[in-house]
Structures are given as C-alpha cells and as structure tokens.
Amino acid sequence: MDMKSDGLNAFEKAMLSRIAQDEIKENIHQFTLPYRKMMAYYRCAMMQVETKFNVMDEELSLQYDRNPIETIKTRLKSPESIANKLIKKQAPLTVESIEQNISDVAGVRVICSFPSDIYMLADALLKQDDITLLKRKDYIANPKENGYRSLHLIVQTPIFLHDQKRLMKVEVQFRTISMDWWASLEHKICYKKDVHIFPEIGKELRECAEIGEILDRRMEMIQQKVESGNS
After folding, report:
1. Residues 6+ apart with CB under 8 A from 99
2. Phi then psi for 180, rounded to 5 degrees?
3. Neighbouring residues of 220: CB distance < 8 A, sequence distance ≥ 6
4. Angle at the Cα of 133 (from 129 to 134), degrees rounded to 5?
5. Is it the case that residue 204 has pLDDT exceeding 80?
6. Would you state the pLDDT for residue 20?
7. pLDDT value at position 194?
8. Domains of the chain in sequence order
9. 3-state secondary structure string across the chain
10. What is the pLDDT of residue 192?
11. Are the CB atoms for 41 and 168 separated by under 8 Å?
12. What is the largest CA-CA distance in the chain?
C-alpha cells in the first residue's frame, strides 16, 4: 500500500507540476501580447513628444541663430524596472496596473545649451493644445540633497491609432550639458556598483554639482554678452 501510495503521489506531483507549467506558459502568453501593445503605445507617445522638440529646435534655430537643444534621448523602462516599481508600490503585476501606477514608463530627455533654454522649451511644450501637464518637479530651483539638478514634467498626450485615440503619459526631463554630465557620472559612481558612499564622497559630488551650476551661469552670461554685442 505504501509503495502504491508513494507511486501515486509521485504521479500526482508530476501531473500537478505539468499543469502548473502549462498555466504559467498560458499566463505568460496572455500577458505578453497586451504588454507588447502597451509598450508600442508608449513608444508612439515618446516619438510624438520627441518630434515636437525637433520641430521647436528647428524653428527656434531661425529665431536665435543657434539650436537651443543639444541632444534628445528617449527610453522605455525595462520589464525588470517596471516590475520592481510595481512591487515597491505594492501594485498588481498587470498591464492595466502599469498604466495606472507608473508615470515614467516612457521618457524623453532634452539636453539644452543653457538653463534659460530649459524653461523656454518647457513653457513652449506646455502651451501646445494636445499636451496636459500632470506633474512638475523643478530640481533646478530646488536641487536634490545629492546635488541632482533637472526639470521633470509628467505630461499626457494623445496618440491616434487606426481605430482609437489613447491618452499616454510621458516623462520629460530637461537638463543642461553640465547637469546631464554630472547625473550620468554620479549614477555610474553611486548606483552601478554596490558600494557604500561615504559622507565625504557625497560632499564632493554635491560640490561638483555646484561647480556645474556656476559654469552654467557663467556660460550663459558669456552667451548673453555675445548676443547683445552682435545686436
């Protein structure tokens, strides 16, 4: 009896394991297509916002005889980053939950020449009829404790599909060249390696951020002198 029971249990376990694997595969299949669709929608919204900035840069280059935008970078959050953020928020791991709980899945980073260009471009974007501001964080006026500076906007924009219109969220970050340089290197130093940041290192990083701010102001003053001298 015991041997039969053990054999049956082993068989049952094997069958349950097979059923569980089939269910996991089915769940993955059911989740994959909606997830891919959602990411495609975010890509469309991201491309639309990027295009808006390319148009503005072209137009403003005629007015100012220079391009206020140095570069535009775009990115979609990775599946791992999305999952980690949902878990941190204690939100369901579903496609619907992504849209409801995460506002920076799609990101556009605009690297500007001078600080004044940041606010000019942000204001120009928000004046457009199809852009709605959802959230604004000005880390230039109020830098983070570690020295990070940037202007963050969460905006909503419609995308027009073949059979529907969808409102999608996009995070737009504005930085000068020095802000972006500092943020990129600070990220490599502090986050890419699992190391403890000693207080003196944090102090040095903040000082570097302050030097970048001084450089931004001085370079903009030089630019204004050149422009006023040529006018």
Report:
1. 38, 169
2. -70, -40
3. 114, 115, 116
4. 140
5. yes
6. 55
7. 53
8. 2-230 (3.30.460.10)
9. CHHHHHHHHHHHHHHHHHHHHHHHHHHHHHHHHHHHHHHHHHHHHHHHHHHHHHHHHHHHHHHHCCCCEEEEEEEECCHHHHHHHHHHCCCCCCHHHHHHHCCCCEEEEEEECCHHHHHHHHHHHHCCCCCEEEEEEECCCCCCCCCCCCEEEEEEEEEECCCCEEEEEEEEEEEEHHHHHHHHHHHHHHCCCCCCCCHHHHHHHHHHHHHHHHHHHHHHHHHHHHHHHHC
10. 52
11. yes
12. 101
pLDDT higher than 50, residue 84: yes
Answer whether 38's CB lies under 8 Å from 95's CB.
yes
Distance CA(115)–CA(70), nearest Å, equals 12
pLDDT tens, position by position, 3-62: 444 445 565 555 556 555 555 555 555 678 888 999 999 999 999 999 999 999 999 988
Amino acid at position 230, single letter: N
Across the chain, mean pLDDT equals 87
Looking at the DSSP assignment, which residues form a beta bridge with residue 132? 156
Torsion angle (degrees, nearest 10) of CA 199, 200, 202, 204 = 170
- Compute CA 115 distance to the chain's CA centroid, rounded to the nearest angstrom: 20
* 100-125: pLDDT as tens digits: 999 999 999 999 999 999 999 999 99
Token code pair at residue 79: 């599946």
